Amino acid sequence: MAAELLKIHPQNPEGRKVAHVVDVLRKGGIVIYPTDTIYGIGCDLMNRKSIERLCRIMDIKPQKLDLSFICNDLSHISEYVRKIDTPVFKILKKALPGPYTFILESSSKVPKILDVNKRTVGIRIPAHNIPLDIVKLLGNPLITSSIKDDDVIKEYTTDPEEIYEDFKNDVDLVIDGGPGGNVPSSVIDCTNEEITIIRRGLGDVDKII
């Protein structure tokens, strides 16, 4: 059965539509949704079968799982990472919500959830109301990956209807929140004493670290 294509207002997401997305996620569904950077694909972090399915769709081995968590605020993060040092916390507070992925040391909870011994985890709080509202209502983070394009020139697909055509037989729901971006998040590693920029994407990294 083909996926559902659901239009949601990007600035003021309709509550009943957000509730419908959350219902799909709670039933083990895979959802494609907009962020402040590019469109993402994800599922409920607490549903292991969904994670296995997501890995199959993205052609990732579960043991090599390297996906990010979408959280809705800094207090949400604290459940999934070890104690954050004050300098790092100040950076997170300055940067989030925003187009950044922070690599942090995972808490003991993460390997139990994923059944994979992960020492680090990527954390995102996007500056986009649709994923923030979804995660807030769901009560758990989404585990997520970026939507990539097979076209070597156009690395990221920006048109939600095009994304729908590409993924309609793999996922359960595609959210149309308007055109997406084509620049991914900046990735910042905070697991060592010296903070390292892994990828310069969207956002002015030099202003926050």
From TrEMBL:
Q: Which InterPro entries match?
A: DHBP_synth_RibB-like_a/b_dom (IPR017945), Sua5-like_dom (IPR006070), SUA5_domain (IPR052532)
Domain of life the protein comes from: Bacteria
According to the entry, every stretch annotated as the YrdC-like domain falls at 15-203
Write one Gene Ontology MF term.
double-stranded RNA binding
Q: Which Pfam families match?
A: Sua5_yciO_yrdC
Give the matching NCBIfam families.
L-threonylcarbamoyladenylate synthase
From the Swiss-Prot or TrEMBL record, give the protein name: tRNA threonylcarbamoyl adenosine modification protein, Sua5/YciO/YrdC/YwlC family
Annotated organism of origin: Chryseolinea serpens
Question: What does UniProt list as this organism's lineage?
Answer: Bacteria, Pseudomonadati, Bacteroidota, Cytophagia, Cytophagales
